[in-house]
Amino acid sequence: MNQKEDDIPMNCWREIGISGDFTCPRLLELVHCRNCSEYNKAGRQLFDREIPKGFLEEWTQNLTGTKETETLDTTSVIIFRIMSEWLAFRTVYLQETVNMRPIHYIPFRSNNVFKGVVNVNGELLLCVSALDLFESTRGEGRAPSGKTIYERMLVISREGERYVFPVDEVLGIYRLPLSELSDPPVTMSKTPTNLVMGIFNLLDKRIGFLDDEKFCQSLKRSCAH
Question: What's this model's pTM, rounded to 2 decimal places?
């Protein structure tokens, strides 16, 4: 291990990454630290290090004692756009973001929400259309930037169920103070209110905070039909 490798911060994700202040310039492109080579390199280096003195005793105490929990009044979310609607989803259920992949239609199974399967890292995942789940109308509310529809795909997992769905734009990962949530209006533009547990404002955008349980249940029902 040379000096250059030694200078790499082993916990940059805790300082400027998803567990820090989100100032890392790579986050805009990579969305999540797990997609970064420095994050993976740091993980490999951990296996090459000798166990420091007192390490086992310290972790034994940590695991048998009271575990620290995330501050209850904040949560980490990934913010994305589907047509004109900005939405947020808890990152604890986000596995990765990928570029657009071909969707393989399944005869007699695919429908307006369940589109088929997508190959992600050699695994076939159920592909769903959140656009159709939200009953949005195609061609309306495109971003003025003129970006291509479905630029990225999000892979999510909850209670053993994994899905992938395309989105028009990923804004990034942010720490959301739950105290800033307000009740959704009677009618949110295009998005069913029963899937949104609250709204908040960020960067001059009104964002709907998705109810992860109801959202995933809706996806599961769509794939079962």
Answer: 0.62
- Which domains does the chain show, CATH number per domain? 3-64 (no CATH), 74-224 (2.40.50.180)
The 3-state DSSP class for residue 156 equals strand
The two three-digit tokens of residue 145, written as one number = 């930037």
Q: How does pLDDT run across 183-224, given as a tens digit for each residue?
A: 876 655 445 557 888 999 998 899 999 999 999 988 888 887
pLDDT in tens, 79-126: 999 888 899 999 999 999 999 899 998 887 778 888 889 999 899 999
Alpha-carbon span 11 to 198, nearest angstrom: 33
Coil/strand/helix, residue 92: helix
DSSP type of residue 34: G
70: helix, strand or coil? coil
Going by the DSSP 8-state scheme, the letter that residue 106 receives in this structure is -
Q: Is residue 30 within 8 Å of residue 94, measured between CB atoms?
A: no
